[in-house]
Amino acid sequence: MNARATVELKSADELEARLREIGAARYHNLHPFHKLLHGGKLSRGQIKAWALNRYYYQASIPVKDAVVLSRFRDRALRREWIHRIEDHDGREGAEGGIERWLKLTDFLGLDRRYVESTEGILPATRFAVDAYVNFVRERSPLEAVASSLTELFAPGIHRERIEGLLANYDFFTDDVLAYFRKRLDQAPRDAGFALQFVRENARNPEEREAVCAALSFKADVLWVQLDALQHAYVEGHVPPGAYVPEE
Amino acid sequence: MNARATVELKSADELEARLREIGAARYHNLHPFHKLLHGGKLSRGQIKAWALNRYYYQASIPVKDAVVLSRFRDRALRREWIHRIEDHDGREGAEGGIERWLKLTDFLGLDRRYVESTEGILPATRFAVDAYVNFVRERSPLEAVASSLTELFAPGIHRERIEGLLANYDFFTDDVLAYFRKRLDQAPRDAGFALQFVRENARNPEEREAVCAALSFKADVLWVQLDALQHAYVEGHVPPGAYVPEE
Predict the structure, then answer these.
(1) Angle between helix A178-201 and A154-168 (nearest 10)
(2) Do residues A23 and A152 make contact, with C-beta atoms less than 8 angstroms apart?
(3) Portion 106-125 of A in contact with B at CB < 8 A
(4) Residue B38 and residue B32: Cα distance in Å, rounded?
(5) For residue B126, which residues of chain A lie inside 8 Å, CB to CB?
(6) What is the DSSP track for A80-128?
(7) Is B105 left (phi over 0), alpha (psi -120 to 50) or beta?
């Protein structure tokens, strides 16, 4: 009934192998909603619902990373981690990931104030994303870092997405997908650091197990968001108060 | 796109009327999963999945109420609220709601250790329930009290449930449904107090609006749990790691 390891993880290599197994089994690239999205099977309205909901995730990432930063007593670690906040928020002269995401929602015809208000998102999106922010507040710094490890598996899905959206929808253009292209560079660098960190700082089987559980938790955070989109916008059960596409 | 009031709520009576409208429009008695459950349309396996997931909600209620209690600086208010914790946890010589719920899951054939471990519940259940606990920690005491107001609408659904389960499934017996029967007395008393409290303590349109938003939030917490059950166990998309019924 449960996919967690029952075998003790005795080394950093065994930990890394187990993390890669979790990614292969539970990362959201396996979710049917992504297959529909990348395969050209969604209407423009369904893609708008996806982009609107995903905005809340994007907008919460720097908040999450600020909480992570606040958990580190080690200045060197904070100096390493801080660029993640700027990658999303941007800084003078450098656009961030949130601005890139808003360009995507602008392009799709969503009103920017409506997107930024987040009032039309699915409650399940909000609960899942907030669970992520609370997780890094409540768990150990090691688990907080480990929960970012889904980025190990992100480049594959971003590449698939760029190719799929351009090939299968006539309205997408390359510059609108800048968010994903940028993450092709950012995610591997960040994931590499986090992986090295958990390899060095999870020092016994219990800590390695906690690292694996943090990755599974984060995979659930991503999966739940797609389950909710599929239920609402593919199967047609939009809950009270949520966005209803007109197209 | 949004169901919230745009009209200022000028009095306690206007507040109460709006709260009752929200219940009539958004309480989870309207959810298709409950219609299936009460109408005899679910398999025993689907009912087990419901009882297993709902256990996490039941088990979290006294934790939620302990947080609410911790927000009150007024001793009289704490003395009024504390019985809610005991209603669920029980006390020497008095069984509580959690024990009654476990009798239901026992009866359905679920292993008690498995239920109590909560390891097989849907991630969406966990995120929604945890969102409720976090809400009462982070919002004002007034909003914390207001979020309990779904109990205003509970007796109807409990009555429907007792009747529906007994009439439409041959395996249910009355004593197994003791949880719901007990709540027929408890919920109206608690809801009455909470309603009186928000009527007296929401003193301007902004505070009344916050009370309404808290009730809508709580309705979402309940609705998301049923959406997740329907998606997983009626439409057949059980997410990785969650309980899979054998029957």
Answers:
(1) 170
(2) yes
(3) 114, 119-120, 123-124
(4) 10
(5) 131
(6) HHTHHHHHHH-BTTB--HHHHHHHHHHHTT--HHHHHHTTTS-HHHHHH
(7) alpha
Q: Enumerate residues 6+ apart whose C-beta is below 8 A from B214.
A: B135, B139, B143, B144, B146, B147, B149
Q: What is the fold of A12-234?
A: Heme Oxygenase; Chain A (1.20.910)
Token code pair at residue A234: 């593919």
Distance (Å, whole) CA B90 – CA A97: 50
Given A1, A114, A130, which is nearest B120 (Cβ)? A1
Closest CA to A29 of A41, A38, A42: A38
Residues in chain B: 247
Q: Helices B123-138 and B44-71 meet at what angle, rounded to 10?
A: 20
How far is residue A187's CA from residue A149's CA, in Å, rounded to a whole number?
A: 10
CB-closest option in B3, B120, B232 to A241: B3
Q: Rounded distance, CA A116 to CA B48, Å?
A: 40
Residue from B52, B61, B118, B117 nearest B88 by CA: B61
Q: How many CB atoms lie within 10 A of CB A10?
A: 11
Q: Taking CB atoms and an 8 Å limit, are B227 and A3 in contact across chains?
A: no
How far apart, in whole angstroms, are the C-alpha atoms of residue A13 and residue B133?
Answer: 38
Residue with tokens 């996806």: A50
DSSP secondary-structure letter at B94? Answer: B
User: What is the value of ipTM here, to two decimals?
Assistant: 0.79
- Secondary structure (3-state) at B165: helix
Tell me the domain boundaries of chain B: 12-234
Question: Could you identify the residue written with the tokens 């409650």?
Answer: A123
Task: Show pLDDT as tens, one digit a residue, over chain A (247 residues).
Answer: 344 446 899 999 999 999 999 999 999 999 999 999 999 999 999 999 999 999 999 999 999 999 999 999 888 899 999 999 999 999 888 899 999 999 999 999 999 999 999 999 999 999 999 999 999 999 999 999 999 999 999 999 999 999 999 999 999 999 999 999 999 989 899 999 999 999 999 999 999 999 999 999 999 999 999 999 999 999 999 999 999 998 7
Tokens of A124: 């399940």
Interface test with A, best of B231, B243, B244 (most A CBs within 10 A): B231
Write the single-letter amino acid at B44: R
Q: Give the Cα-Cα-Cα angle B93, B97, B102 (nearest 5 degrees).
A: 100
Alpha carbon of B182: minimum distance to chain A alpha carbons (Å): 30
For B36-60, what is each residue's pLDDT tens digit?
Answer: 999 999 999 999 999 999 999 999 9
N- to C-terminal Cα separation, chain B: 40
A147: closest CA of chain B, how far (Å): 15
